[in-house]
Amino acid sequence: METHYYSSSLGSNITLNVFVPTPGSSEQITQMGHSAKYDYENGLPVLYLLHGAYGDAFSWVRYSNIDRYAQDRGIVVVMASAENSFYQDLRSGKKYKTFFTEELPLFIRNVFPVSREREKTFIAGFSMGGYGALKAALTFPQRYAAACSLSGALDIPFMFDTYKVEGEAFYKSIFGSKEDFVGSTNDL
Q1: Burial class of 165 by CB neighbour count within 10 A (0 to 12, 13 to 18, 19+)
Q2: 116 vs 136: CA distance, rounded Å
């Protein structure tokens, strides 16, 4: 389901892609004595799924079967765009770390039937999103039962030296200088 709202952390309207599992034809919820697969009242498990560089809120839907997997497992999946921010609060003013770790979970808990329990809250990401997922989980371990980094872009000093397409200015705009990054709280 595509959802739009104004984000105060980002200072703009944002688009979310939220998958909420629903009973299929073989899971009639009107049937007497039926044990519900989806516990909407107590909240469903939730997975925050972070895209990689140059991706967006719809990357996982376009390039994977995430909706099918989430339906099979009865889990809500939340996907939002982060530009090429590495899920950090940027010097330019957009606060992606704040958005993904504070504002977005609050919005999701208040609008969708998700659990508020740590044991049912997960975060994962691909490439840049893998960095963001681990950074969020290590910063806020009380919020996530598990985190997963798929081909995570975790070695930022290596990227400073290797990926000249983006250039050192790109990484400096996110993390500061390479020297400031090494050993900082951003250095995973």
Answers
A1: exposed
A2: 17
Q: What is the DSSP string of 113-156?
A: -B---GGGEEEEEETHHHHHHHHHHHH-TTT-SEEEEES----H
Size of the chain, expressed as the number of residues it contains: 188
Residue range 93-151, pLDDT digits in tens: 899 999 999 999 999 999 999 999 999 999 999 999 999 999 999 999 999 999 999 99
Residue 76 three-state SS: strand
Residue 41 identity (one-letter amino acid): E
Place of tokens 């681990």: 134
Torsion 132-138-142-148 (CA) sign: positive
Residue linked to tokens 């009973």: 23
- Strand blocks (E) in the chain: 2-7, 12-19, 46-50, 76-80, 121-126, 146-150
**What φ, ψ does residue 17 adopt, rounded to 5°?**
-115, 110
Residue 174 and residue 186 in contact, taking contact as beta carbons nearer than 8 Å: no
